[in-house]
Amino acid sequence: MESALFSEREKAVIRWAELVNWNKARYDESAYAALAKHFDAAEIVEITTVAAFRGLMNRFMDSLHIELEGPELEGRGGRAVAKREDLHAYLAKLLDLV
Fold first, then answer.
1. How far apart (Å, rounded) are the C-alpha atoms in residues 76 and 31?
2. Binning pLDDT at 50, 70 and 90, where does residue 47 land?
3. Which of 5, 10, 32 is closest to 92 using CA atoms?
4. Residue 7 has what pLDDT?
């Protein structure tokens, strides 16, 4: 990921979460190594759990046609909108959990 918006630590988490959700994390040793530069084994397990759970919930909700945002989402034409600073705040909160 080539972006000045995220630190190397954040990029490692994003890359790992994507791989977890694509079910390809086990095949990418470099992604695990990048994550391990910033997190210990217990933290990696927690990050993996959060990423996997969110992926599970997305698939579950999509399969049952359940909107995650309800009327608020529908009021914007059915599309979720996130500002860059909101994404940063969310990632910072996730990183603070580990």
1. 36
2. very high
3. 10
4. 93
Residue pointed to by tokens 């994550």: 35
- Cα separations in angstroms, 54 against 17, 37, 48: 9, 24, 10
Query: CA-CA distance, 45 to 49, in Å (whole number)?
Result: 6
Task: Specify the pTM.
Answer: 0.66
Is 55:20 a contact under the CB 8 Å cutoff? yes
Residue 57 in contact with residue 45, Cβ under 8 Å? no
The radius of gyration of the chain's CA atoms, rounded to the nearest angstrom, is: 15
DSSP the chain: ---SSS-HHHHHHHHHHHHHHTT-GGG-HHHHHHHHTT--HHHHHHHHHHHHHHHHHHHHHHHTT--SSTHHHHTTTS-----HHHHHHHHHHHHHH-
